[in-house]
User: What shape does this take?
Amino acid sequence: MCATMVSAALAEETTIKFWFWADNDAYAQTMQEMIADFNATNGKGITVVGEQYPWDGGGYSGNLLTAAIGGGGPDVATFKLTATPSFVGNDLLTPLDEYINNWEDKDQINENLYNTMRTAGGEDAIYVMPWNTQVLYVYYRPSMFEAAGVTVPTTYEEFLDVCAKLTRDTDGDGKTDVYGFGMRGSNGGQEPWGCFLYAGGGDWEHLDSEGGIKGMQDYIDLYTNGYAPETAPNDGFAQVIDNFKSGLTAMTIHHIGSSAQMMELFGDDVAAFVFPAGEGQWTSMGDTETVMFESCANKEAAFEWMAYLATGKGQETWCTVTGNVPVAARVQELEQFQSNPFMKVSIEGSPVAGILPVLDTTTEWISNWPSVIQQALLGQITAEECMKTLQETLWAE
Assistant: This one.
């Protein structure tokens, strides 16, 4: 795509219909302000018209799919990676590779993120444009580290050792008062668990490999050795956060979305680090992207808007207001992001952040993950049996 073609395509007034969801009224207002800024400053006659739709527990994706199949969808929309196969399978999305390869800001986005986009599409093409993320990391209490005489671990083996040393009977009554690690064995726990999977040497494609089994055994050992609360097999998000906030656990895994309440409660006595590397390294990435539809009549103009969100002023504005992690290196390097220690750790973890495989089986696998893991934690099945079951159900043909 040469510059002359792009200029010619944008020579006349162009309107881009844009669908988005917003988590609250403030975010919705911010998006409309960003649209107004883009319309006033793009200098290419492009007018974006934003239409807000509710997330509706994920119903947004289904409504977007129905509208697009029926011919009434937008030109560009905000998007979740998990929805990619349905849209690609119906030939609704425009491959973005040509646009990205000729884009001056291409290298502002880490190659790992582009690879994640390709994987979600199920083929060697990019159908989704990175916009903003949330990256899991380890929260910890510096005062507890000091009391236990440990420092922030830089390797996976050091992390496991620190979990043991942070587990303490602080009042001498023979009972554990502080557990080293806040383990999430119930709903949603598959994402922090993935850190152990990779550190042990496994990956999502080979859950029952020797490395995957080792990562699972390490996870089991943390529980059976008493380095995680007894309730861990049944603990979900609320429980692991409450345990950390109450001082029952010295470390737990979540993302920047919890940082404000942590700082309000603990002040300087809360910090974070990237889950350290072992044989491998991975952490979970929450994602929001944009997509362009094949029905869009003015694709060059649509990409201008997507680029504004990905690396332009829209990236800076949105991430500043929402607290999400920017994907553009230029924005990541701004003082307002670098001076926030939780944002800085999120950015440090971004190059190893990814998502679960996007398969027809993934939703059911996530639903069944807690029951399989709970059996392993309680000694009802071995680590090998656990990982074999997880492999067979995720990659069922």
Notes: Residues 166 and 180 are 5 Å apart (CA to CA). The first helix runs from residue 3 to 9. The first strand starts at residue 14 and ends at 20.
